[in-house]
Amino acid sequence: MNQLRNVPRADISVNRNRVKKYGRDKTDIYLNNGVEFEIELTNPTQDTWLAKIWVNERPIGMGGLVVRPGQHIFLERYLEDNKKFKFDTYMVDDVDEVQEAIAKNGVVHVQFYQKIASLTYSWTYTAQPTYTKTYTNLHGVTKKSFVPKRGGTYGSTIGAPSATSTGISDDASVTAMNMLDVQATYCADSAIPEPEQVETGRVEKGSESDQEFVPAYENFNTYAAYTYTYKLMPVSARPYEAYNVRVYCDECGRRQRKTDKFCPGCGTRF
C-alpha cells in the first residue's frame, strides 16, 4: 500500500468520517456488525485516475470509477447495484479449514489507473528498408526503427492462452452404494470436544442508495500505479492497546487513574 501524500488515495469511512487503521502496515480496520460504510477516494493530483474496487476479492462492478483532479468521493454503493456497502459478522469454528475458507472475508482492494491520451500511429518506409513506427502520447512523440528480416512478417499477433479442463473418469466415480458400505463407530467415553468459535465479517449489500453515476469514455493505463488493500474485521477481534486496559486495586478493587501511583481507597502501591 502506498503512503505518499501527493498520490490518489483510498480509505474506509463511516458516515463520511475516516475510520482508524491498525496494524504495523495500517491495513486492519474494525467495524461493528451491520454498519454501512463508504470507500473514500481522494485525488490530490492534476491527473485523472480510474479506481477499480474489489470487496471480498470480487469486483463491485464492471469497469471502475473515474476520479478527476481534485475530486474527493465517498463511494457508498456497488457500481451496478444501488445497494450500500454493509459489514455483516457471524460466528465460525476456529479450525484451519474454516480459516482458509474465510481468508477473503472483509478484504477491500482498490487500484488506481492513470489516464492516457489516445495513441496515434503512423508508418513510413525508407530505402534500407527500415520501418519507423511513430506514436504520440502524454509525454510527446517517440519513434522506434527496426530492419525486418528476410521472409519475416510485419506486425504482431496476440493470442489467447489455451485452457484445458480435467474431470473424473467413469472408473474413478463413487456411487451412493459404495458410500453405504462405509461404517463408523463412536465411543461415548471419548467424545470429540466442540471447537472454539471466532467472529468474522464480510462485505454484503445493505440498504438502497441514491448515489448515481454517469458513463465516461476515456483511456487508462492497463497497469495499476497505486494499490490499497484493507482487511475489515469485527470489533471483537481488535487488539487492546495500553490506554484501553483498566487497572484495579488488588486489595479494594478501586480503579487506578492515570496519575495514581497509590490506590486512593486503601493506599496500596500500584
DSSP strand tally:
15
What's the total helix number?
Answer: 2
Bin the helical content: under 10%
Distance between the termini: 42 Å
Radius of gyration: 29 Å
Poorly predicted sequence stretches spanning 5 or more consecutive residues: 151-180
Order of SSEs = EEEEEEEEEHEEEEHEE
Task: Summarize the structure in words.
This protein has 270 residues and is mainly β. Among the domains are: 9-117 and 197-239, no CATH class; 242-270, no CATH class. Helices cover 4% and strands 35% of the residues. It is built from two helices and 15 strands. It has helices spanning 96-101, 176-180, and strands at residues 9-14, 17-18, 28-31, 36-42, 49-55, 58-59, 65-67, 72-75, 83-93, 107-114, 120-125, 131-137, 140-146, 197-208, 226-234. Strands 1, 2, 4, 8, 9 and 14 form a six-stranded antiparallel sheet that branches. Strands 3, 5, 6, 7, 10 and 15 form a six-stranded mixed sheet that branches. Strands 11-12-13 form a three-stranded antiparallel sheet, with no helix packed on it. β12 and β13 (140-146) form a beta hairpin. The longest helix is centred in the middle third of the chain and has 6 residues, at 96-101. It is elongated and about 95 Å long. The two termini are 42 Å apart.
Task: State the main characteristics.
270 residues; 15 strands; six-stranded antiparallel sheet; single chain; mainly beta
What topology emerges from the helices and strands here?
Blueprint (H helix, E strand, L loop, with lengths): L8 E6 L2 E2 L9 E4 L4 E7 L6 E7 L2 E2 L5 E3 L4 E4 L7 E11 L2 H6 L5 E8 L5 E6 L5 E7 L2 E7 L29 H5 L16 E12 L17 E9 L36
Parallel strand pairs: 3-15
Antiparallel strand pairs: 1-2, 1-4, 4-8, 4-9, 5-6, 5-7, 5-10, 9-14, 10-15, 11-12, 12-13
